[in-house]
């Protein structure tokens, strides 16, 4: 299995009514050199200005982004190229990130290369330290910028640290 750390930015709380603006993915392995970045044209006229502002883009900029179908097809092709077996989706907030990625894959390509499940990095860390009040974010090395590749890299760094320093049995 290959763990793919994913982070998305959107202009609202749910896919379909709102749009995924951009996303980043990184293969969790030493070096974190295999990345994907996509910017997607909005699929809805609806957006929440405060949600969009987190991404750092204006509505006008997003309207010039790439067609969501081609971005998702390119992401699926990238996964097929860089992952030798099964890709495993993991993110800081899989309830949110997974919802958009899964919906976009099914809506625009007819299937999801990740299958039907995802992993939550925060929950994994809480289990390892046996404390639901703890947070893994201090393990990031890359600054959390809300650029999804940066954020995915920081989260992947945290997972690598959890493996190395805390003894997580996980195979990359």
TrEMBL record:
One of its GO terms (molecular function) is exonuclease activity. Keywords: Exonuclease, Hydrolase, Nuclease. Coiled coil: none annotated. This is Exonuclease. The lineage of its organism: Bacteria, Pseudomonadati, Bacteroidota, Chitinophagia, Chitinophagales.
